[in-house]
Amino acid sequence: MLQSTVAGLTSGGAYALLGVCAVLMYRMVGVVHFAQAAVATFGTLVAAELFHDGMAIAPAAAIGVAIGAGLSLLLGAVMAIWFAQAPIEVRSTVAIAMLLGLLTVGSRLFGGSPREMPDPYPGAAFRIGDAVVTTSALVVIAFTVALAAGVGLLLARTRFGVLVRAQSERPVTAELLGIRVRALSVAVWTGVGAAATFGVFVVAPTRPSDVTSLSLLILPGLAAALIGLFRHVWVALAGGLAIGLAEGLLTHFGSVSAYRQVIPFAVVLVVLLWSQRREVWDVAR
């Protein structure tokens, strides 16, 4: 049972990273980025193609991350130019349209079959009893912790962070004050795209590696972000790890193992019900 649970750390690290990225996108540019994992999938699959064509894994990964960042930059530019003043519901709907478009284009470019993915961090990092913690899991978790801590310091203690928070909370006022709102927004999109691509590339060898499966990693990522109410990166990080561990635990029980993918949806339902409990109770009174 312990081995199965710990095996979920790799997936949990990916969920945590995507959850943290989703919180950052919501807080800094005011959008629920449904296309985040799809963008990362493009970079990941290009890196895999380059690796299988004979390129070393490090430069292939670097090119893949650059492609993910570049694609995210383009999507961010679209959002910043045409939807900057739109309500968050509209921007999030546009993000869903971006996801569907990327799934369609990705299926054309890469096909629908799973691919063999290179493992940039093979082997075990350490053991907990008989359970093995893989190097990939450790790298993704460490990267996510560093990202959450670094962005927290950036937002709290740097001029760039102040400008980002200003354009997120009062974009029109920020623009009137001379802040380059579009450039800041696109910079956030680009950085988050690069971070998500790196995470998906690291965990891809442990997942079904077709376009749809990797793109839909965003669902547990958004569930993790929802646990943090799209505001608390550390809660989202812990939520992503918890979802991964829960999925790993369920693989130990054959009778329910096939239903482990339902966990993110159950989490979303529970969190929504819990967050609305006061309103329901007030009406009941």
Which helices and strands appear, and what pairs or packs with what?
Layout: H1 2-29, H2 36-52, H3 57-82, H4 88-110, E1 124-128, E2 131-134, H5 135-157, H6 159-169, H7 171-176, H8 181-203, H9 211-215, H10 218-227, H11 233-250, H12 263-275, H13 277-284
Antiparallel strand pairs: 1-2
What does this structure look like?
- The protein has about 280 residues and is mainly alpha-helical.
- It has one domain.
- Helices cover about 75% and strands about 5% of the residues.
- It contains 13 helices and two strands.
- The protein has a two-stranded antiparallel ribbon with strand order 1-2.
- The model has no long low-confidence stretch (mean pLDDT about 85).
Keywords summarizing the entry:
single chain, 285 residues, mainly alpha, two-stranded antiparallel sheet, globular
Bin the helical content: over 70%
Which sequence of SSEs, written as H and E, runs from N to C? HHHHEEHHHHHHHHH
Roughly what fraction of the amino acids lie in strands? Answer: under 5%
Q: First CA to last CA: what distance? A: 45 Å
Mean pLDDT: 84
Classify the secondary structure makeup into a structural class. Answer: mainly alpha
Domain tally: 1
Radius of gyration from CA coordinates: 19 Å
Shape: globular
Strand arrangement within the widest β-sheet reads 1-2
Ranges where pLDDT stays below 50 over 5 or more residues in a row are none
Could you tell me the number of beta strands? 2
The oligomeric state of the chains shown is: single chain
The total of helices stands at: 13
